[in-house]
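$ run holo --ligand "zinc ion" --emit C-alpha cells
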Amino acid sequence: MDQILRAIRESAAAEGVTRVKTVALVVGRRSGALPDALRFAFEVLTAGGEAGDGDADGSGDGSAADETARLFRGARLIIEEPPVRARCRRCGLEYGEDDGDAATNWAFLCPRCGAGAPEFISGRELRVEFYEGE
Ligand SMILES: [Zn+2]
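-- output --
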C-alpha cells in the first residue's frame, strides 16, 4: 500500500493535484495483497489527517506522512479484483477460476494435462487503475 500511495503522491505532485478524491486499484486475487487490508489501511489514512496536529515534539509538521494524509483525506477507494487466468506452459490451454471446478484449486494445475506452474495472464496485478483529484 505504501508503494501505491507513494506512486500516486508523486504523480499528484507532478500534476499539481492537491486533493485526491478517488483511488481505483486493480488487485488480482493472486497478487498477495488483501483487499480488506488495503481498505482498512486506506480508511485509517483518509480519516487520520488531523493526527499530526497533536504531535508532541512537532516532528510531524510537514512530514511525508502528514502530506500524504492531507492529500488523501476523505478520498474514496475502489478496488477491482480481476479473476485469475493462467496459460499452461505444457499444452497451451488457457484456464481460469471462472471456468468452474477444474481450475479452482490453489495450485492451479492444468485441467487438461495436469501440469503445474502455469504462466499467469491475470490475477497477479497490483496497480493503480486511475485516481481522480483536483
Ligand atoms: Zn496443460
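-- notes --
The radius of gyration is 20 Å.
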